[in-house]
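Hi U.,

Before I forget, here's the chain from the pilot set. I'm dumping it here mostly so it's searchable later in email.
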Amino acid sequence: MGYMDNYKLWLNSPALDEGAKKELEAVAADKVELEDRFYRNLEFGTAGMRGILGMGTNRINIYNVRQASYGVATYVNKEGKDAAGKGVLIGYDTRIMSREFAEETAKVLANEGIKVYLFDSVHSVPEVSFGIRELGCAAGVMVTASHNPKEYNGYKVYGPDGGQLPPEAVQTVIDAMESIDIFDVKYADLDKAVSSGIVKIVGPDLDKKFLDIVKTQQCNPEAVTAVADTFKLIYTPFHGTGSRPVKAILKNIGFKNVIVVKEQDTPDGNFPTVKSPNPENKEGFEIAIRMAKENDVDVIIGTDPDCDRVGIVVRDADGVYRTLTGNQTGALLVEYILRSKKEKGILPDNGVVIKTIVSTELAAAIAESYGMEIMNVLTGFKYIGEKMTEFAEKKNYTYLIGFEESYGYLVGNHARDKDGVVASMLIAEMAAYYKTLNKSLYEALQDIYKKYGYYAEKTNSYTMPGKDGMEKMASILSNLRNYPPTLINGLNVVKITDYQEQIIKLSDGSRLPLTGLPKSNVLRYDLADSKSYFIVRPSGTEPKIKLYMGTFSDSYDSAMATIDKIAKDCEEKFELI
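Structure:
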């Protein structure tokens, strides 16, 4: 069935409300727009689904949210009557339509006989992950598109451990979605469902439990006390869910001078003060940096709309405010946590640090220097969560910290997804700790480089929207497999690791099996200098191809110069731009 057939089916459906019909009628003459809206169904995968808001099969709207909710209901009911009684916790962020999608989810689940816990207001990802475990739920749903632009929203599904669904559970959801027409999903009346008790509204009691357990992850509470009267930091939630829990935890642990960016402290899915609510981007911190200069502040902390990612800006010795990468913040946290535990004599013998395959190797050097194991998992925090659940069952490792280069960190076992609340608390405490040593976080980072070496990394993203973009991304990955590069930046490619084909290809023609990780559409290339590499993968949540590069040198500037050359060569040879 072609995109025009899908368009006509939607336009003529009696289930479509008048507002939706008017939206579709308004683009009737725009064939490019229609094709993009209807050439495929919005994909549901291990990270749920995410897309541009609007009417169409390739948009996110109340109709495919209902359909996905029917899939979740099928998954829960398949687990047995006890699972339905345990219920599903539903959270949502500040984005456009988030509350509406959460309510539609609750209505569908209630109609299928599943108990629902619905948050009374916007909440963060880590609070949902924590709440699932705390309430003993069979599953959870978080309505969010994380750090994407305002045009997007999304739908994440969690299992009973608070981590994202495993592949077999996802397939159950997909099969159920495909078994029912998108306009035939039945749903209950929400007010009646609340009155009957099948839908329960969750209030602030769960918030307190969450903050109490986050507080237990402090490493050096005495450091905060020592500098509390004079130490100042700036926090911005980028119009998102972090406002309440982050401000609360910082106050709770003793910070007295937290300056909040008021312009960005109001919940607003239009994100009016930023181009994109992504803490990776320095432009979002412009107001905060201006305030920092006026108030003599050393560190700025920002969280994305669903408060699972954290970005920081630190002041260097020359007074310049620098945004740190996710890798740099991750390295700081790994060093700080391991150092603190060692100083207090509580560093476990079986401790482990987990990072993703695209995250900095500096973390490995730090972990190994403290006698801790480093583990690599595929990109996506779900894989870190899976390891945590495995450790809890087998009791073979003590989890210390997990992180990914895309600004996600988790310390503690209270959640199974990245947690911007605990990360914000520890970053602030870490800044206070180094302040007691008369150092800034920037100086602490330089000390890490001097101790372990100058590791540098960079991630470039190449946006390829629409049907043509999807085809181009598939073509690039296919060409890389069929015609692998042999020379990049004047260096021979000596090893290719194909995570999809589960094979390692060496330059001498030999092949080795890749074991220990699931299949994923990722290619890694190691170069002949034994320290430089690059990785290519399509984004799982956005129409982008990502190029990750890393190297090691005798100075950070030298390392970055090498990375820039690798990037330029890759862009030209792979036709990324």
